[in-house]
Design brief:
- The structure holds two protein chains of two kinds.
- Chain A is an alpha/beta fold.
- Chain A has 14 helices and 14 strands.
- In chain A, about 50% of the residues are buried.
- Chain B has 16 helices and no strands.
- The chains are: A alpha/beta, B mainly alpha.
- The interface between A and B is large, with 56 and 55 residues.
Chain lengths: ~350, ~425
């Protein structure tokens, strides 16, 4: 490896070091590190802190998979990707999985040949308005000026929404989220529209967040989830069921605080036992240790804990669970059974 | 005619010069002549003064009230209580990330710092040719020292690389006198042989004097400086070669140079960067790709070399034909004529253009942020603005970035003006 890097560095040509093998799990184990693609920075979802440690909602999924596979949540090489480089990084094998607030769409799943292993955040396009406008519903926005990022699906969704409700609007096209914040605060537009999680994160940075409200209407579906390449279903299963394990843990009341006790010996609840590996052989079927899920939960907590620490109501971002509540509380977060 | 002495008055001592009228001296004169010399200028002066007042009245309180010690933007706002004031705390908390990226190990910061200081030592004999020529030996060693300091790892890597160049030099020295081509290609072969053999003696151990830092962990302004310095110093010789190649009478060489220059100049830099970061990873197996930093250096170097080649071609074209003929009439062969007569003059003419390209290139290094390398701008746009503490701080961060870039670019510009004065041999 070192020699080939050296040669590549000097000669500008690489020595072929073997073709990428199909078994991602073996590659990850041999490397001792999980290469996980994340965003270059999105508030609450993925960003390095002052000491350079990555943290966030998407980052936790990477850490959970690393804990399940390698037993160490810090054995992750975070590869920052932009919206433009993310899919090639995954397709070329530079990263093993992508957890980068990526919307699950038909063409990405089918045409780009990726496998979305689930949904870890149900997002959707929303509207933010200053409170003093006195607007309580997006349907009251007749004739409003709307700040909108150009070239995104939000632009199309916006046109659809206003047309189907037969009301008029005036778009103010802008390039980036940062520009949008400035324009909106300067009063260049009455309404700012983008993904609801982005609106909440943007509002949290305002000097007076209480002066602005996010309207209840959500006008599009943006299911965000981790994804892997086509062609290695065993690896896809591992990522899928690690995410499901986090969700199931919340359903069963397994938390990072009590998982050590509950996983120490078989208890009364057979599903908890199967999840934590004290009963059955689910881990073995995945090619992992019996306590893989226990390690993942111990590292990052269950789905609810991840949500609350990174983007929940006690954080500056302050997102409510909403659609992302467990199905038992009326949300959409639901895991197939561990059986 | 009787002499009438009573009316004669001849002053015996000179009158001391009286002071000029107050309106023609000192500050008043300067103000009158420079600021209020006409109605139009007076109006412009007043308008400018008002503009300066408006700008300063907005920025001075912002800077003076600046807060340096909090740990988040929210705390800044709490302290300011709605007053105008900057939140410079982001700089005091994240300065290391802005300068070195967020992954370079903190205890190793002395390494890039030392490399940065040595850069001045290495660059001095190149930039200021009054210094003793022996210092150039250190300049030749500097790339290898800097590589070892910044990336760390086994010291054998830079040593083997250096040996390859030394071997190439000796082969060229031995055979280049008889035939340039033999010497040139022989030197390349010799260097590769040394590198290939050297590849086997590089130890694989991780336990080295300077811990290895992978390229992915480099970032911040350090990355901009590294890219800028490497690419400028590589693209200048490459640009000269391309410019001469384009002037060549050999159709093959001329054709290659023309196609290369026109192709590179016809493609935006950002496209080349995407090719470097995205497309090339399709062609190499995942474990043995060329280092991303190196790919980016190659692309930026090619890009600026094409521009520098055209600037130098302008310099070559500006030389009177007599200079070429004079060189021929002295019986100089092509390399001698170029080295002694043509290039010194052509390069001197090209200095402003080359500096222009160099300054532009240095600022273009911020484009690497779009291929998710965390240079200074990438750090600001990505990790720092995406942290929950500092989301919403724009002026302070981007102002800091502008300040750093201004220092470097202004320095380059001042040096080039000194160089032009120093090289001026005409008697204008």
């Amino acid at each position: 490896m070192k020699k080939s890097v050296f040669f590549g560095a000097l000669a500008g040509a690489a020595l072929a070091g073997g073709v990428a093998s199909a078994a991602t799990l073996d590659d990850v184990k041999a490397r001792g590190k999980l290469n996980c693609g994340v965003t270059t920075g999105l508030v609450g979802f993925a960003a390095p802190d002052a000491n350079g440690n990555w943290e966030g909602f998407d980052v936790s999924v990477c850490r959970a998979v690393a804990a399940a596979v390698l037993g160490d949540p810090s054995a992750v090489e975070f590869v920052p990707t932009t919206g433009k480089t993310r899919f090639t990084a995954l397709a070329s094998g530079e990263i093993d999985m992508l957890a980068r607030n990526t919307t699950w769409t038909f063409s990405r799943d089918v045409d780009l040949k990726f496998e979305f292993v689930g949904v870890n955040y149900y997002d959707g396009q929303g509207f933010m308005v200053p409170k003093e406008l006195g607007v309580t519903s997006a349907k009251d926005l007749d004739g409003a000026t709307v700040c909108i990022q150009t070239g995104t699906t939000t632009e199309l969704n916006l046109a659809d929404f206003f047309r189907s409700n037969n009301i008029s609007y005036e778009p103010v096209p802008i390039e980036t989220n940062a520009e949008a914040q400035q324009q909106y605060l300067a009063g260049a537009c009455d309404v700012y529209t983008t993904d609801a999680s982005g609106l909440a994160a943007t509002r949290a940075t305002f000097e007076a967040p209480g002066d602005h409200v996010v309207l209840p209407e959500i006008v599009s579906k943006e299911p965000l989830g981790p994804l892997v390449r086509h062609g290695d279903n065993e690896w896809g299963d591992i990522v899928r069921w690690t995410l499901n394990a986090l969700i199931t843990a919340e359903e069963l009341g397994v938390t990072s605080a009590n998982v050590a006790d509950m996983g120490a010996a078989a208890g009364n609840n057979p599903e908890v036992n199967r999840l934590l590996g004290t009963e059955g052989s689910l881990g073995e079927m995945l090619g992992l240790d019996a306590d893989w899920a226990k390690k993942a939960i111990m590292a990052v907590g269950n789905y609810g804990e991840i949500f609350e620490t990174n983007i929940g109501e006690n954080t500056p971002i302050g997102l409510a669970r909403g659609l992302n509540a467990s199905y038992r509380d009326g949300g959409l977060i639901y895991s197939p059974p561990f059986r | 005619m009787p002499t009438d002495t009573s009316v004669a008055f001849v002053r015996t001592a000179e009158i001391p010069p009286s002071p000029p009228p107050p309106s023609e001296t000192g500050l008043v004169k300067w103000i009158r002549e420079n600021l209020f010399s006409s109605w139009g200028n007076s109006i412009l002066t007043l308008v400018s003064l008002y503009a300066i007042y408006v700008i300063l009245s907005a920025t001075v309180p912002w800077i003076v009230n600046g807060i340096w010690t909090t740990s988040s933007l929210a705390e800044c706002r709490e302290i300011l209580q709605g007053q105008v004031g900057a939140c410079f705390s982001v700089l005091t908390e994240r300065w290391n990330q802005l300068l070195y990226g967020f992954k370079y190990p903190v205890e190793e910061y002395w390494r890039p710092n030392l490399a940065f200081l040595l850069l001045f030592v290495a660059a001095a004999p190149v930039l200021f040719f009054d210094l003793p020529r022996k210092l150039l030996a250190f300049t030749a060693l500097y790339p290898f020292i800097a590589y070892w300091l910044i990336w760390g790892g086994s010291i054998m890597i830079p040593i083997v690389a250096l040996l390859g160049f030394v071997a190439g030099y000796f082969v060229f020295d031995r055979f280049g006198k008889q035939s340039f081509a033999t010497g040139f290609f022989g030197a390349i072969v010799a260097a590769f042989v040394v590198w290939w053999i050297g590849g086997f003696i590089i130890p694989e151990t991780e336990d080295t004097f300077l811990p290895a830092v992978p390229s992915r962990d480099l970032g911040g302004f350090m990355l901009n400086m590294m890219l800028g310095v490497t690419c400028v110093s590589l693209s200048l010789p490459l640009g000269i070669v391309l410019a001469l190649g384009r002037q060549s009478k050999m159709p093959l060489i001329k054709g290659i140079c023309v196609i290369f220059i026109e192709f590179i100049r016809g493609v935006p830099l950002i496209t080349l960067l995407f090719v470097a970061s995205v497309m090339l990873s399709y062609f190499f197996p995942p474990e043995s790709t060329v280092d991303l930093f190196l790919r980016v250096v190659i692309m930026i170097t090619m890009f600026s070399a094409a521009y520098i080649a055209e600037v130098i071609r302008g310099g070559l074209a500006a030389l009177p034909k007599g200079q070429y003929e004079a060189a021929d009439s002295l019986g100089l062969d092509y390399p001698q004529a170029m080295r002694l007569i043509i290039l010194p003059q052509a390069l001197k003419i090209s200095i402003p253009g080359i500096v222009n390209v160099a300054v532009g290139l240095f600022k273009d290094t911020t484009l690497v942020s779009v291929i998710s390398m965390f240079d200074l701008v990438g750090m600001i746009r990505g990790p720092i603005l995406a942290s929950t503490e500092w989301n919403g701080v724009y002026w302070e961060l981007l102002g800091f970035a502008a300040f750093l870039f201004f220092i470097v670019c202004y320095g380059i510009s001042q040096y080039s003006q000194w160089l032009e004065r120093r090289l001026a041999t005409d008697h204008r």
